[in-house]
Amino acid sequence: MSIDITTARKVAHLARIAVRDEDLPDLARELSAVLAFMEQLNEVDVEGVVPMTSVTPMRLKRRPDVVTDGNIQDLILANAPDAREGFFVVPKVVE
User: Fold this and answer.
1) What's CA 46's distance to the chain center, in Å?
2) Is the CB of residue 51 less than 8 Å from the CB of residue 36?
3) Count of structural domains, the chain
4) What is the pLDDT of residues 73-87, one digit of tens each?
């Protein structure tokens, strides 16, 4: 698929990229090259290939999923204008 100058101008506009008119032919050629490469990738047979998250076959390190309070309650409440008994104090809104 080949990209013409009109399409390159439209793509630049949609991407909110300022492109001078004299640079549009180069942009059109580069976009055409990208599309040609994508078409070339579509020719690769990937049947039976398992998707990978990395090029090295290793399992990611994981930590145990444990819920904690972070042990920084005092530091957090120090930022509050008013705190009592370990909670934020806010004005009453509902009568």
Assistant:
1) 26
2) no
3) 1
4) 889 999 999 999 989
Residues 16-67 have pLDDT tens digits of 999 999 999 999 999 999 999 999 999 999 899 888 877 887 777 888 888 8
Domain with 19 in it: 5-42
DSSP calls for 12-52? HHHTT----GGGHHHHHHHHHHHHHHHHHHHTS--TTPPP-
26 inside domain: yes
Q: What is the pLDDT of residue 17?
A: 95
**Predicted model pTM:** 0.51
Q: Can you tell me which residue has the tokens 């120090």?
A: 78
* Neighbouring C-alpha atoms within 13 Å toward the C-beta of 28: 16
List % helix, strand, coil for the chain (3-state, nearest 5): 40, 5, 55
**Burial readout 26-44 (b: 16 or more C-beta within 10 A, e: otherwise):** ebbeebbeeeeeeeeeeee
Maximal CA-CA distance, the chain: 69
